[in-house]
Design the sequence.
């Protein structure tokens, strides 16, 4: 190819690549909702049901997107107060199997090396496998931990989950790596995880922290920081931030309609009312109060 033809082709690519980039931007920007504060989303999704959210996702074109594998399920259920249900804003973290030696040289079976073991253990928790994501936890946070292949490590236990709850976490979604399960259930900390991938050992010698507030994959679903997480006994669904407003509004409309229909049946069957048939604000009034469009489908 002569120099002139090569120059022409390069010039064409120079124009084509940005054009492709703009086209892809349009593809990923479709259905972008107005960005709103976490506080608005938290109120919009308060009491949301997974079924309604999945229906809302379908309405905006997200079919079979965002729904985690059914293996990610609640450790416990409260069908009276529904306190196992959670909705909130994702904070993400990723642990991975360590590529460091179990100990650089010392024989840990020798009691004389106990102090050396303690120093090594402290180093592991402070440098290799700490919890830097904790500083991002705020009221309404759902902590999402990707811990694929963490060598039977219990990255989450009854103590740290209480600490995260004290910081404002409303629930944990994790691929596994949970231990102290009896205490977690007793403490009534909402946890959604694969029970058969729970972890028994501590993190030292087993895993490391890899990422904080970066995309993670749990239950076959990619979760970005700031996405909306909704979980109940139906499972866990992740709503991308770009469509969170419209999906939340559609789900709320469906919830209010379902409440009205079920409440009528309760009355017909002379059943005592419970929280699942509690009358909610009318959708238009609710959306107006939140500063959102009164009709999400216009």
Sequence:
């Amino acid at each position: 190819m002569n120099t002139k033809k090569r120059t022409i082709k390069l010039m064409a690519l120079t124009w084509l690549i940005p054009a492709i980039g703009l086209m892809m931007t349009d593809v990923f920007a479709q259905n972008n909702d107005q960005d709103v504060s976490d506080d608005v989303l938290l109120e919009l999704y308060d009491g949301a049901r997974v079924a309604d959210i999945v229906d809302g996702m379908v309405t905006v074109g997200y079919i079979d997107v965002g729904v985690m594998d059914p293996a990610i399920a609640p450790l416990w259920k409260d069908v009276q107060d529904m306190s196992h249900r959670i909705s909130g804003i994702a904070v993400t973290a990723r642990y991975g199997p360590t590529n460091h030696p179990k100990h650089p040289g010392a024989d840990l079976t020798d009691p004389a090396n106990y102090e050396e073991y303690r120093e090594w253990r402290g180093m592991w928790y402070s440098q290799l496998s700490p919890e830097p994501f904790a500083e991002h936890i705020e009221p309404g946070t759902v902590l999402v931990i990707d811990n694929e292949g963490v060598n039977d490590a219990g990255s989450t236990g009854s103590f740290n989950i209480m600490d995260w709850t004290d910081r404002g976490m409303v629930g944990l979604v994790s691929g596994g790596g949970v231990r102290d399960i009896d205490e977690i259930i007793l403490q009534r900390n909402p946890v959604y995880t694969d029970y058969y991938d729970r972890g028994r050992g501590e993190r030292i010698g087993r895993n490391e922290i890899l990422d904080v507030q970066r995309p993670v994959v749990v239950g076959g679903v990619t979760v970005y920081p700031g996405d909306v997480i909704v979980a109940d006994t139906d499972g866990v669904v992740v709503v991308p931030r770009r469509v969170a407003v419209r999906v939340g509004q559609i789900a709320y409309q469906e919830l209010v309609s379902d409440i009205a229909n079920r409440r009528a049946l309760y009355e017909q069957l002379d059943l005592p009312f419970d929280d699942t048939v509690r009358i909610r604000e009318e959708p238009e009034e609710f959306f107006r109060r939140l500063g959102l469009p009164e009709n999400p489908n216009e």
